Amino acid sequence: MGENESTVWDSPEETELGRFFQPPEDVPEGLTGVYLLSDSREAFRARYALAARAEHTIDLQYYLWKSDTTGRLLLNRVMEEADRGVRVRILIDDIYHTGRDELYADVAAHPNVEIRIFNPIGNRGFMRNFGFVMGAKRYNHRMHNKIFLIDGAAAILGGRNIGDDYFAIDPKLNFDDMDALVVGGAAKEAGKAFDLFWNSEAAVPIDSFIKYQASDEDHWKMRAGLLSTLQDSIDEVPYQIPVDHDEVMAGLKEVRSQLVWTKAEVVVDVPERYVEKGESAIFELLQEINPSIDDELYLQSAYLLPEPETIEAFAGLVDRGVEVHIMTNSLMSNNHLSVHGHYAKSRKPMLNAGVNLYELRVDGAMMDYYRNRESRLASSNSGLHTKAFVIDREISIIGSYNMDPRSRVWNSEIALVVYDPIIGAQLRAIMAEEMGPTNAYKVEFNEAGKLQWTAEYEGEEVIFKTEPNATRTKRSLSRLSGWVPVRRQL
């Protein structure tokens, strides 16, 4: 092992979490316990509770970690565990973290914490993203993986980054997303995936490429700032956070009681694929599965930009009698206008291929629970951030892979693949509800061959002839953005 290399905790079964999540005696060795985290509140509470039970290691790998309420709460939770002697490794992609260098250095000044930045951009000033916009290969290779791993024993994998809009407390926009909590075999594979990136040449310690060098005093000033806002942060979360031991254990016992023990694996790109120009591991997996699909494919992709060959593959499935159901964002729910502009040009080809196409409503019923219980969320819109597939109700894929050029060509991605009809039925039911008329528009051709969007309002079917609830200006900007030649970078 090299001087700067380290690895995940190698005896997870001997930790408190390992013993707590020990499989029943009749479960064969090597299987994985799986629990879906579709509810945004539960997704945050699970992360908070798992971190609170860490004994040896916390390993966190994220594309985006915001400095908002939930971002501060999780950072404070992790730092408190570091104070108890837990080793913390945090690996963050560099693209969306302008101006955060000193904060990261202050955090990493703790003797038990190390932060590495994946593929750091040399220019730390306002020109740092110029290469990204211009399509420079090195700048565009981003680490889109998401791993939350405690003691090598329990992991959360899926689509969520760390931020208020992923955990249902943002007053403007909250994402519908999907994670899975895994223990057993897939948790061990998640540890190997984390180490693969952590020990790669592209993962650079924060203090090795910035001028600022944090002192102990800088670290404790940062910690004092976190503590000063801690109670306010807790108060801002409109649901119960597991703070004391009994609350933590109650939540974890509920998860344990509903684990499905089954065959699962973690599929991950190699960190060096932008150098080696290799194909996406998740794309290769989908190609491998395609010929065996018999009945139906359910797919949710937040940012949907299918290549012509992908649309041909959808058509081939339909010709074989397979029902293909695909959901993505509508114009009003999409937080990336340029992505929507390019996606819009794929609607008609997908419909011609026989795809059942759905777009998320910003006013969908799935957000009503939060809107009706918390005044700060009363006007919050919904956005889709899920990246998931269900094949024949038997194979479930949950991860970070969007059906777009960025995921296939530029990003490194990760996916949990579960081979189980129970998990398949659970995930399909969630998707089917979200594709329903109270949560999504169904996009179809009308009798004249024009696009129409159909939804349900107060029990009545409503048909839109243009993109629903969007102003003429927004529709025009979306169309214009679709002609900007950046599709391969999206």
Give an overview in words.
The protein is of the alpha+beta class and 490 residues long. The protein has two domains: 26-257, Endonuclease, Chain A (2-Layer Sandwich); 279-489, Endonuclease, Chain A (2-Layer Sandwich), CATH 3.30.870. It has 19 helices and 20 strands. It has helices at residues 16-20, 40-52, 69-83, 101-108, 130-134, 137-140, 185-198, 216-228, 230-236, 245-257, 273-276, 281-289, 308-319, 337-343, 347-352, 368-373, 405-410, 421-434, 472-481; strands at residues 32-37, 57-62, 87-93, 113-118, 147-150, 154-158, 173-176, 179-184, 203-205, 260-268, 296-301, 323-329, 356-360, 381-384, 387-391, 395-399, 414-419, 440-445, 451-457, 460-464. The protein has an 18-stranded mixed sheet, with helices on both faces. Strands 7-14 form a two-stranded parallel sheet. A hairpin with a 2-residue loop joins β19 (451-457) and β20 (460-464). The protein is globular and about 70 Å long. Residues 1-25 are annotated as: Disordered. One of its GO terms (molecular function) is phosphatidyltransferase activity. This is Phospholipase D family protein. It comes from Puniceicoccus vermicola.
Structural features:
two-stranded parallel sheet, 2 domains, phosphatidyltransferase activity, PLD-like_dom, globular, Endonuclease, Chain A, 490 residues, Phospholipase D family protein, 20 strands, PLipase_D/transphosphatidylase, alpha+beta
